[in-house]
Write a structure and sequence with these properties.
The chain is of the alpha+beta class. The protein contains five helices and ten strands, in the order E-E-E-E-H-H-E-E-H-H-E-E-H-E-E. It has a six-stranded mixed sheet. Strands 8-1-9-10 form a four-stranded antiparallel sheet, with helices on one face. A hairpin with a 2-residue loop joins strand 2 and strand 3.
Length: 196
Amino acid sequence: MGTFAPEFTAWPKTARLFRDITITEKIDGTNAGIHVSDGQVVAQSRKRLLTPESDNYGFARWVTDNADELATILGPGLHFGEWWGQGIQRRYGLESRRFSLFNVDRWCQVGPDGESMRSRAEQSSLCGVVDEVPVLYRGPFREEMIVFAMAELRRAGSFAVPGFMNPEGICVYHSQSRTVYKVTLDNNDAGKWEAA
């Protein structure tokens, strides 16, 4: 019988809780991504690559039809977001669809051309169609800011579509753990925030 020699596995670094967070509105649509690389622009859903022939709510067709502009706005990389609006989940009372990026920090970063994604989007025909999810808070982790964001959604409705009074909830991005957490208004996640 041989000697057992396990491979060493280190304990991962423990993230500190009281670091910066970003709270954004959680949009109720369908998860989507856009790959931009070497002149190629490809759409994906949460689980698979998409084509106009094997689509998800028309996202691949929209990406294909707008590939050049999307490559200019987004630049190289994989860009995750929500494809939402007309005919998708809550619909938000919209007669069109939108793509909102999850990584709001990336949206603001200035690229080699001296412009941000936001600036490039504002100069394109996709202005108002490609944007970021609404930011409700940026700063140190504070539970009261999560409570406040949930209360504001209940009181004022969606920040993505003002006047839409049935928002889904929030996403909390924790910078130290590089993890996104969600809290929704319409299920048990929200129970803690009822008194807010």
